[in-house]
Design brief:
The protein is of the alpha/beta class. Helices cover 37% and strands 15% of the residues. It has helices at residues 26-32, 42-49, 62-72, 105-116, 134-138, 153-165, 192-196, 200-212, 217-231, 247-258, 267-283; strands at residues 2-4, 17-19, 52-56, 76-80, 121-125, 143-146, 169-173, 179-185, 302-306, 311-315. It has a ten-stranded mixed β-sheet, sandwiched between helices.
């Protein structure tokens, strides 16, 4: 465990880093968050300042979310990701650039976020969500965001188990096509294990085999279909029937053969704003001011928005619907 105001020159991937505020001037904080006031009150801004958000995954959405929440004035932000940036990440990920290829996603996200503001606390878990780190990551969080990559089903279930153990609400949101689906998991409600119909033990083995390149086609297909059924229902088709091309078929084939998800550069921006807004609404449930907004239904239900189809819907599902 490292505690300081900035990352050391050569941080390791096995250490948890706690970066404390290097500036605590109240006038500075009030001015830099001043444009929030009106849509929220100064009292509600203090609620945000007293809040702790955990973001698991620093990819297309997670890194951007970390920067959004720091700009918004959240008092403590935690980020976790075990991966390093590769060239294909440059099309959409907050910390990805020509110079960051090969570097830790969590650590690069922390560096960039720290440059935006340094009057909050930032915890960094470059080892990602593991059996050793999950409890420390989740403890004390008011809300946790599941932005773990598609194939990491073991880490995803482990995160959800840790969130439940501390009674923390958890939101999951994805970037699919030109839209997004937002799920809300309550501590006493429907679980990720039920949604994917996988135990942690089975999910852990499947994740290890897929990520090591030793999984069979049947194992890859099983995880892909469970993820689609649970978290990516209604896979959108954007090609017309007479196009001679199917976006759904192309995306499914690429996932199965390459284990790579197709992600358009603009969609994580839309999805991140969607998720960040609902995270703020969840935190402001502590406010004395009643809010008028569409809360996501409890999982396995979800909210859906799609810029391509110009639609927004509430989808109610029960476990029996899966």
């Amino acid at each position: 465990m490292f505690t300081g105001v900035s990352l050391p020159e050569n941080p390791g991937h096995d250490t948890v880093y706690t970066l404390l505020p290097s500036a605590s001037d109240d006038a500075y904080y009030r001015e830099r968050t001043n444009r929030n006031i009106g849509w929220i009150t100064e009292t509600e801004q203090q609620i945000l300042r007293d809040s702790v958000i955990g973001i698991a995954g620093c990819g297309g959405m997670g890194g951007l979310l970390a920067s959004l929440f720091c700009r918004m004035g959240i008092g403590e932000v935690r980020v976790a990701d075990s991966e390093v940036f590769d060239l294909s990440n440059v099309n959409r990920q907050f910390g990805a650039s020509r110079t960051s290829i090969g570097r830790s996603k969590a650590l690069e996200t922390a560096r960039l976020t720290r440059a935006i503001c340094d009057d909050n606390t930032l915890m960094v878990f470059p080892q990602g969500i593991t059996e050793e780190s999950a409890q420390d990551f989740a403890q004390g969080c008011h809300i946790i965001l599941d932005e773990i990559e598609f194939w990491a089903v073991g880490s995803r279930i482990l995160l959800h188990q840790a969130a439940r153990s501390f009674g923390a609400s958890l939101l999951n949101c994805n970037a699919v096509g030109f839209g997004s689906r937002l799920f809300r998991f309550d501590p006493e409600g429907f679980t990720m294990e039920e949604l994917l119909d996988l135990s942690y033990e089975d999910a852990k083995v499947l994740q290890e085999r897929i990520q090591s390149g030793t999984a069979s086609t049947e194992e890859v297909t099983l995880v892909m279909e469970r993820m689609f059924r649970g978290l990516v229902p209604e896979l959108p088709e954007y090609a017309s029937e007479d196009a001679g091309y199917s976006t759904v078929s192309a995306v499914r084939t690429r996932l199965l053969t390459e284990q790579r998800a197709s992600i358009v550069s603009s969609t994580p921006l839309l999805a991140s704003g969607f998720l960040a807004t609902h995270t703020v609404f969840e935190l402001l449930s502590k406010s004395t001011i009643p809010r008028v907004y569409q809360r996501p239904p409890a999982a396995p239900g979800y909210l859906i928005i799609d810029a391509g189809f110009h639609e927004a819907r509430v989808v109610h599902r029960k476990g029996s619907d899966l």
